[in-house]
Known about the structure:
The relative contact order is 0.14. The protein is of the alpha/beta class. An eight-stranded mixed beta sheet has the order 16-23-22-18-19-20-21-17. Strands 1, 2, 3, 4, 7 and 8 form a six-stranded mixed beta sheet that branches. A five-stranded mixed beta sheet has the order 11-10-9-14-15. It is built from 13 helices and 23 strands. The N and C termini lie far apart (48 Å). A hairpin with a 7-residue loop joins strand 2 (17-30) and strand 3. The chain is globular and about 75 Å long. Helix 6 packs across helix 9 (285-294) and helix 12 crosses helix 13.
Amino acid sequence: MLQKWITSIGLDIGTSTTKLIVSKLLIANQQNQFTLPGCQIIDRRVTYASSIYTTPMLNEVEIDVQRLTVLLEQEYKNAGISLDQVEAGAVIITGETARKQNAESILHYLAEHAGDFVVATAGADLEGMLAAKGSGAIQRSAETNAVIANIDVGGGTANIALCQNGKVIETFTLHVGGRLIRLNSDGFVTYISSYLTEFLKNNSLILREGEKATFEKLSSICQLLAEETVNYVKALNQNSTLLVSPHTRSSIHPETIMVSGGVGAMMEKQKPKTVEEVAIHGDVGPLLAYHFQSIQVSQAAETTRATVIGAGMQNTEVSGSTVYIGSKRLPLKNIPIIEIPVQQEEPWNQQLFQERARASCMQASTIFSAEDPPVAIALSHFPYCSYKMLQELAKLISAEFIACFKGAKCLVVLCEQDIAKALGQALAKQRKELEIICLDQIDFTHGDYIDLGLPVAGEAISVSVKTLAFSS
């Protein structure tokens, strides 16, 4: 059995705090005469966790890139690693910080200066998934067969993920966080997020910047925010004015609700009794934490570092070991994923698949820039594949890809099943001028982009499926 340790980092730049972890991932290529080759991460260990820093800002709308860079360089020295040792991981900007005017450029800058295989990721759905992984909610759902909800409450947002059987089944985000209301030590309100305006008005609560807040009013607001969040998570409410983006709540009721994030970390502390105690961090985080605790939700096993642990240890996957790589271009970053169902309700039908492939490729050719490879074609709803069907698939995929991306020289195909080597060989025969990368055992359900690393165990390569969505 081939084994290899790789180094992964996670850097989380949040509304309130910034932190970094370094972890080691043990990748094993397990194969014997009785089974198909299989490659997976069999051990994950955090080897270094930075201090938790206040996110450096130039002003309300600009992150301080220079101070962030100095911070990162110092933490690499503290961890005893260099850039060329980093082979996986993620740099993410979360919460309200992701809405700052220069977030996207900073994210890409940091990704380029954090290691060759570090990915740039952002987006509320992904944040919720990473926090659920790092907090232990996903693992607990696998062990108990119950539906577990994880609410990761930071400074600006609450990222929620519902988990069942070891997978995330639903995600959504609310404008709920400790720094949406900021106070000075005397209790005067210095900032109120515009996202709270309608919610407060609907609940007959008025709070203005510059006024001195009473403990009773702050407590009422925090209680309502906690109840609104938990009621929506429990599907007792079907809508909320605090939703970050439109969401249709399913009828799934979680058996257990866990809270992680900076607010989750404060749940074990005593209830603040005065405005001065509430404002110890310049916001309402301690009071919000108390009200989550008072409505019978549990503190997650990992709180403050849940997202960064999820990013550094959990976002990396390994492809199957029966892959086809007819290209020397690896590693590749930020390839857009376009999902094409092989079959839907109908049995295999060449014409219907060709129509779906043509429509998806044509749409993608108008959206994405002329990079090479332009996209990764992800084949979903793929229950069975005969030899004849495999050859037909290869012919249709290569024809529609070439028709829509005339200048492309590299075709990337992702499969959930163990057919990558056979499909890759069939694609290579169809178009000898195309470089083919065909990977299997890839879960691309919750992702818009994919990064492909170098081989880490046999033919298997490290991959990271993520989103690069930014809020305006």
